[in-house]
Every structure is written in C-alpha cells, then in structure tokens.
From TrEMBL:
Subcellular location: Cell membrane
Protein name (database record): Signal transduction histidine-protein kinase ArlS
Parent-record interval covered: 316 to 475 of 475
Source superkingdom: Bacteria
Organism: Brevibacillus parabrevis
Domain Histidine kinase: from-to ranges: 1-157
Length: 160
C-alpha cells in the first residue's frame, strides 16, 4: 500500500458526481482548490471507496436539508477531506462507537425504503482503509444539526 499514489482532485469530483446522479435532489458543494497539484499516498480505488461510503451515509442520514459539502484542506504533510452534511446527526453517546463493526445507532432512524437500509459496516470499512494508508478518520456531530467526517491522508512526498 505504501507505494500507491493518486491525484485526488478528479477522483473526488467524479465520485461526488456519481452520488449526485443517484440523488439529484441533493446540492453537493465542494471546495477542492487546495488540492491542485497535490498527490496522495492512496490508490484511486480506495479513495473512491472511502468517499462513496461517506457520501452515501451523508445522503442516508439527511432529511429535508439536502446539502452536502466536501472540503479539502492541505496541512503540513497531510490533506484533510471534510465531508459535511446537515442531517440528523449522531447522539453523543453513540459517537465513540459508530466506527465499530456492525454498530448502528437506532434502526428507527433509517429510511424505511428498501436498499438504503445499512448494516453498520460502512464506517468501519472506511476507517480501516484510511488507517491502512497511515491516515486517520474522525467524526464530529451534533444531533439534529449535522455531521462532519474528517479524513486525513498523507501527501505523497517527492516530485509533485
Ligand atoms: P452501511 O453498512 O450500509 O454503511 P450503516 O450506515 O448503518 O450501514 P455505518 O456507515 O457503519 O453503517 O454507520 C454506523 C451508524 O452511524 C449508522 O447506523 C448511523 O446511525 C450513523 N451514521 C453514520 N454516518 C452518519 C451521518 N453522516 N449522519 C448521521 N448518522 C450517521
């Protein structure tokens, strides 16, 4: 994994577009300006997989405020990708556990309609993948206001 490399800007834009095609009612904002010329030490496939999980959650756990933002900030040796929604949020008591395998907050919170029902695997997979590339995943959330998932990934050193 250590040698994987990707140019994140296009990957992120395309993944956002994919999700937006499936969920056209959502307004997807993005600010990826800081990413121009930046390369990350992660494979294209895994970056896309992580983003799909997080964007899918943002969609699933939004209600009437269908606005999602993806923001990239370049820090010293890493990039922070923030995926923000204005959805139902996560109760403080559940927050430490949502990245555990199979942990789900409350079945009743989930949309009843068919395939949107989850298994409690998404976040644990996303976290494991990020950590495989020496990154980190953290979540901030306020109930009834929204959730921000921060994905930290190391910048690929060397010639940009
Ligand atoms: P899946 O395995 O399909 O992703 P899931 O959404 O239930 O199913 P996780 O992605 O692991 O599983 O999420 C765990 C729990 O954390 C969810 O059941 C949900 O309650 C909560 N959660 C995750 N993302 C959000 C979010 N953006 N807003 C509010 N709650 C969230």
């Amino acid at each position: 994994e250590a040698t994987a490399v990707c140019e994140p800007e296009q990957v992120i834009l395309q993944t956002i577009k994919k999700v937006n095609v499936l969920h056209p009612a959502f307004i997807m904002e993005r600010d990826l300006r800081e990413l121009s010329g930046v390369r990350l030490a992660i494979s294209v496939e895994h970056l896309e997989q992580i983003l799909l999980i997080l964007l899918d959650n943002a969609v699933k756990y939004s209600r009437e405020r269908k606005r999602i933002a993806v923001q990239a900030t370049v820090q010293k040796e890493r990039v922070c990708l923030a995926i923000k929604d204005a959805g139902i949020g996560i109760p403080a008591k559940d927050l430490p556990f949502v990245t555990d395998r199979l942990y789900r907050v409350d079945k009743a919170r989930n949309r009843k309609s068919g395939s949107a029902e989850g298994n409690g695997l998404g976040l644990s997979i996303a976290k494991r993948l990020v950590e495989r590339y020496n990154g980190a995943l953290s979540i901030e959330s306020i109930e009834q206001e929204g959730t921000t998932v921060n994905v930290f990934l190391p910048i690929r050193a060397g010639v940009q």
